[in-house]
Amino acid sequence: MVGGIVKFRGVINAILLFAGFVLLSVLPCLSQQRGPSTPEERARAVKAVRSLEVNPLSKEVLAERVWALRWLIGVPDISVKVCGKLPDLTALKKYKYDSDLFALVTLSQAAFIIENPDKAKDLAVTSLAGMESMLKAYETILKDNPKTKSKYLDDLLEKRNRGELAAYVKELATGCR
């Protein structure tokens, strides 16, 4: 039974990840259907990101993640540039909670832009915010279940701990422009 649940969660994660890419690709069309984000919505989105960092797999927080993704797709005044190298989607795809972490990267970039609108166009800085948030969530997941390790994410943690993550992200972001 447990194997069936894990396999089902993997299918759900793959569907969510695919749906996220599809929704992000139609963002320009959808954002014309509503007005700019409100201060209350922006505050809710930032709060959702902070909750996801400390409790990324919680069913309660999942509803906020879904809301935040839909909201981000619909608002015309906040946009996030997704770079397939940040995180490396091929490497992340091998991880059990790939879609959870990828969604957090995207939402974290939006939260960073909300809190730092003057840096919204700096892909390296917004990507770094997303990567750091993802690593916080990964550390939380590991505390709850140490067997859910990822070599790719462990390597990123090592870069962060050595103070090399910002330079690494900046180098990769340069190739995404």
Descriptive notes:
With 177 residues, the chain is an all-alpha fold. It has one domain (2-174). Helices cover 71% and strands 0% of the residues. The chain contains nine helices and no strands. The chain has helices at residues 2-25, 27-31, 39-54, 59-74, 89-92, 98-115, 123-144, 151-161, 165-174. Helix 6 (98-115) packs across helix 7 (123-144). The longest helix is centred in the N-terminal third of the chain and has 24 residues, at 2-25. It is globular, with a radius of gyration of 16 Å. The termini are far apart.
Short structural summary:
The protein is 71% helix and 0% strand.
Provide tags for this entry.
177 residues; mainly alpha
Distance between the termini: 45 Å
- Return the string of H and E elements: HHHHHHHHH
Q: Can you tell me the residue ranges where pLDDT is under 50 for at least 5 consecutive residues?
A: 1-8
Major sheet: none
Using DSSP, what is the number of strands? 0
**What portion of the residues fall into strands of 2 or more residues?**
under 5%
Mean pLDDT: 85
